[in-house]
Amino acid sequence: MVLISTIFFSTFGIENWKILARIWAVIPVLNGIVFLTSPIYSLHEEGEKGLSIKELCSMKIFWVVMLMMTCAVCGFSVGIMWPGTFSIASASIRGGGTAMFALLALAGDLGCSGGPTLAGFVSSSVRNNLRMGILAAIVFPVLLLMGIQICKKSQEN
Asked: Where would you find the membrane-spanning parts of this chain (predicted)?
C-alpha cells in the first residue's frame, strides 16, 4: 500500500490525495461483495441449529464486538497513514528531516518493545512480581525527562 501510494503521489501530486483515498475505499467494498456471495459452511453438528442474522443482531455482545472491530480498523488505518504524513511534513526540515524522522520512529519502536520486555524480564526474575517489573520500567520516562532537559539546555546555549 505504501509503495502504491508513493508511486501515485509522485505521479499525480500530493494535492490529489482525495482521489487515492477513494481508490483505497473501493477495496473494502469489493471485499464485502465477495464475502456476501461466498458460501459459508456450517460448523454445527447434525441436528444443531445456529443463530440467524436477526438473532445475532439482537445480541448486545455482537454490537460490542462490532464496535471494537471498528475501532481496531480505524487504528490500523491511522497506523498505515501517519508515517507518510510525517515524512512529507519532515521533508520541509532542512538537514535531513525525513532521515531524522525515521530515526525517531525507530527509537519509538524500540522503546515500545523494550519497555514491556524489560518489565517482563524483571518481574519474572523476582518471582513474578509485576510491581517490581513496572517499577523497573520507570527508567523510560526518566530517560525521556532527562532528554527533554538536555534539549532545553542545548537550546539555551
From this structure: 23-41, 61-82, 132-151
Residue 44 per-residue DSSP state: S
- Written as one letter, the residue type at 139 is V
Residue 55 lies in a domain: no
Task: Tell me whether residue 98 is in a domain.
Answer: yes
Query: 3-class DSSP state for residue 75?
Result: helix
Do 80 and 1 touch, CB atoms closer than 8 A? yes
* Residue 1 pLDDT > 80: no
**Angle, in degrees to the nearest 10, between helices 60-90 and 97-125:** 130
Please give the pLDDT value at position 68: 92
Domain count, the chain: 1
Burial per residue of 27-45, b for 16 or more beta-carbon CB atoms within 10 angstroms, e otherwise: eeeeeeeeeeeeeeeeeee
Is the pLDDT assigned to residue 20 strictly greater than 70? yes
Cα torsion angle, 138, 139, 141, 145, sign: positive
pLDDT band for position 34 (cuts 50, 70, 90): very high
Residues 125/132, Cβ–Cβ less than 8 Å = no
Average pLDDT over residues 108-136: 88
Whole-prediction pTM value?
A: 0.39
Residue-number span of the structural domain to which 120 is assigned = 1-38+67-144
